[in-house]
Amino acid sequence: MRVGHELLKWSDALATGVARIDQQHKMLINILNDANQCFRDGQDAEAQVKIMEDLIGYTTYHFDSEEELMEAGGYGERLPDEEKRHVREHRAFAKAASDYQLAIRQGKPIDYEMLFGFLNNWLVNHVMGTDQKFGRFLIEKS
Ligand SMILES: [Fe+2]
C-alpha cells in the first residue's frame, strides 16, 4: 500500500493484536504526523531537527521494545530468518532517519515529499507486513 506524504491515520488494518505494540505504533504515527506538519508548514531547521530527534528517539525505544519481545518469545529460535529480516528492517529505517537528520543539521535542502513518502510508506508496509506477522506469532504462542 502506498500512502504518499499525507498524514497517517490509525485504523484496525494496522493492528497487530498485541496491545503494547499497537499502543506504541499509535504514538509513532502521532510523532510522524507532527514531523510531517512541521516540515509541511516550513518551520525552521531548529524545529525540524528537534522533531526528527523525537522521531528517532521514539523509534529507537519502540524497536528495542519489539526486539525484547522477540527475544522473550523465542522468535529467533522458531523463525530465525524472519527475525533477522525484521531486525534488518528496523536498522534500515534507523539509518535512513539519521541520514536525513544529518542532512537537515548540515542545512542541505530536504525533499519533503520524498522524506515523508519514505517514512510513511516504510511505517505502513512494516506494520502491515513484518509486525503483523510477529504479532500473529506472539498471539499463537500465548
Ligand atoms: Fe517492527
Account of the 3D structure:
The chain is mainly alpha-helical and 142 residues long. The chain is 78% helix and 0% strand. It has helices spanning 19-40, 45-73, 75-78, 80-105, 112-141. It binds fe (ii) ion (FE2). The site of fe (ii) ion (FE2) has 6 residues, from helix 4 and helix 5. Fe (ii) ion binds next to helix 4 and helix 5.
How would you describe this structure in keywords?
142 residues, Four Helix Bundle (Hemerythrin (Met), subunit A), 0% strand, elongated
Beta-strand portion reads: under 5%
The geometry reads as elongated
CATH architecture descriptor: Up-down Bundle
* CATH top level label: Mainly Alpha
Radius of gyration, in angstroms, nearest whole number: 16 Å
Main sheet record: none
CATH homology group: Hemerythrin-like
Bound molecules: fe (ii) ion
Structural class: mainly alpha
What is the rounded distance between the termini?
A: 30 Å
Query: Could you give the count of β-strands?
Result: 0
Flag low-confidence runs.
Answer: none
Mean pLDDT over all positions: 95
